[in-house]
């Protein structure tokens, strides 16, 4: 019988339930413990999974002796649990985002590097499951192959993350500076921001407008419009909100050799016959355009099973010491840089150079927490479980 990895799960909210649904079915995993601060919830899922229940993650580490932990708790607690795990030589697979602010992300990455001096094979992965989606992988393949040539513009309108007031009222930590550390950028958008940096890197300038509680009774952002500039001259636009229905997910990537457009599950490549940048300089026709051929790029629309794929890669990297992770822990800081940069630019109403002062953003966040007069309204039975599948595969 092949060796199984002893895994513990911390956090049994909506996303924790997603992990509970597949972990017991993995033949390479032994789920040795589940943990949640709500005792009844921990005991309920422990009974379902046939494992041990804990309400304190340190006690779980001491008694269950997991080799790896999946962290699926509210964002502020990611660093605390991850760093404790690293110090004990426990592998970590962390939910998005890696942290609320850049300083905490840096602390987690540094803790992992320090722990590797004692535990050289210690693994740190992130649950960026959208990197497994066929359409995004095809886009990355085309970009990595250089088929678009020099990139000039990226525009991403992603307003498919609609959330009702009931959603925001479903937990006392949601949509507060103290409980969640932000709104759409730290909750719904980390996958979008990770995809952006995975494909194009981190911008060197950010100019953004983040609207606080524009459509919902919350104290954090629910609508964002951002403009990015990159070192190579490419510009980017990001438009996101949790208050648009029907929403749009339109992703345009323009390069000298054509344009990629992803929308409604279809990927189109408008391939130029020649470089538009060369054509600009060389043509004698004042109003001429580069000839192009539209091509429908076939990709699968199946985005099911993405979480297990990330987990399987993580487990195999540990047990077999082969293969690569879907997303390494050190990569998580990039999406946090973009998120924090957007908010700091909006707060200062100024163009922000990247890298920026991470201490300034953390201080602003603490100021928002300390001066908050917001009274959280939590709906009855708000701690119940909801089907998270509707939020995946946008």
TrEMBL record:
This is Gfo/Idh/MocA family oxidoreductase. PANTHER family: D-GLUCOSIDE 3-DEHYDROGENASE, UDP-N-ACETYL-2-AMINO-2-DEOXY-D-GLUCURONATE OXIDASE. Residues 136-260 form the GFO/IDH/MocA-like oxidoreductase domain. Gene3D superfamilies: Dihydrodipicolinate Reductase, domain 2 (3.30.360.10), NAD(P)-binding Rossmann-like Domain (3.40.50.720). InterPro entries: Gfo/Idh/MocA-like_OxRdtase_N, Gfo/Idh/MocA_Oxidoreductase, GFO_IDH_MocA-like_dom, NAD(P)-bd_dom_sf. It comes from the Bacteria. Residues 5-118 form the Gfo/Idh/MocA-like oxidoreductase N-terminal domain. It comes from Paenibacillus cremeus.
């Amino acid at each position: 019988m092949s060796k199984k990895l002893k895994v513990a799960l911390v956090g049994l909210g909506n996303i924790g339930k997603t992990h509970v649904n597949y972990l017991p079915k993995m033949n390479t995993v032994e789920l040795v413990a589940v943990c949640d601060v709500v005792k009844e919830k921990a005991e309920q899922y422990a009974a379902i999974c046939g494992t041990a229940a804990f309400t304190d993650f340190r006690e779980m580490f001491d008694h269950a002796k997991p080799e790896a932990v999946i962290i699926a708790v509210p964002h502020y607690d990611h660093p605390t649990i991850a760093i404790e795990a690293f110090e004990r030589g426990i592998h970590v697979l962390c939910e998005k985002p890696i942290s609320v602010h850049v300083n905490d992300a840096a602390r987690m990455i540094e803790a992992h590097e320090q722990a590797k001096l004692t535990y050289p094979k210690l693994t740190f992965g992130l649950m960026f499951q959208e990197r497994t989606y066929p359409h995004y992988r095809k886009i990355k393949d085309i970009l990595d192959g250089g088929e678009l040539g020099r990139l000039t513009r990226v525009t991403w309108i992603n307003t498919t993350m609609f959330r009702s007031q009931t959603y925001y009222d479903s937990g006392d930590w949601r949509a507060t500076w103290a409980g969640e550390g932000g709104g759409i950028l730290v909750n719904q958008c980390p996958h979008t921001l990770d995809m952006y940096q995975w494909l194009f890197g981190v911008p060197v300038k950010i100019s953004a407008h983040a609207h606080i509680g524009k459509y919902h009774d919350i104290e954090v952002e629910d609508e964002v419009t951002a403009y990015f500039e990159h070192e190579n001259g490419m510009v980017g636009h990001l438009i996101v909100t949790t208050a648009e229905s029907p929403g749009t997910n339109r992703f345009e990537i323009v390069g000298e050799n054509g344009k990629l457009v992803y929308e409604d599950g279809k990927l189109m490549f408008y391939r130029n016959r020649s470089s538009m940048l060369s054509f600009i300089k060389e043509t004698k026709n004042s109003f001429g355009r580069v000839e192009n051929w539209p091509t429908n790029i076939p990709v699968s629309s199946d985005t099911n099973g993405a979480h297990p794929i990330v987990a399987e890669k993580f487990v195999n990297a540990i047990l077999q010491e082969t293969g690569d992770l879907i997303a390494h822990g050190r990569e998580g800081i990039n999406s946090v840089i973009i998120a924090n940069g957007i908010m700091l630019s909006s707060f200062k109403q100024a163009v922000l150079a990247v890298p920026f002062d991470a201490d300034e953003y953390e201080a602003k966040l603490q100021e928002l927490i300390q001066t908050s007069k917001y009274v959280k309204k939590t709906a009855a039975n708000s701690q119940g479980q909801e089907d998270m599948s509707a939020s995946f595969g946008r």
